[in-house]
Design brief:
Layout lengths: L15 E2 L1 H8 L3 H9 L6 E3 L3 E5 H11 L9
Antiparallel strand pairs: 1-3, 2-3
Length: 75
């Protein structure tokens, strides 16, 4: 059974999210969101020298790419 992740709303496709926003959508701690970013697994948008943001559409696409019908490690 495949699950459908609803779009983040209300948000135009270009809306930028904070790590807290992404953590809430994913249901994980903020530190995990930052870890995904550091490893280059979750694309970020740098805002100046200090801030990291996430494009709402990119987060949704990343979530869709994580979906699997097989247990990890099986072929």
């Amino acid at each position: 059974m495949q699950t459908h992740t609803p779009p983040i709303s209300p948000s135009p496709a270009g809306r930028l999210l904070t790590a807290d926003d992404v953590a809430e959508v994913l249901g994980v701690p903020r530190a995990f969101v930052y870890a995904l970013s550091r490893r280059g697994e979750l694309p970020t948008v740098r805002v100046g020298d200090r801030y990291v943001r996430y494009r709402a559409q990119t987060v949704q696409e990343w979530i869709a790419g994580q979906e699997s019908t097989r247990p990890k490690g099986t072929q």
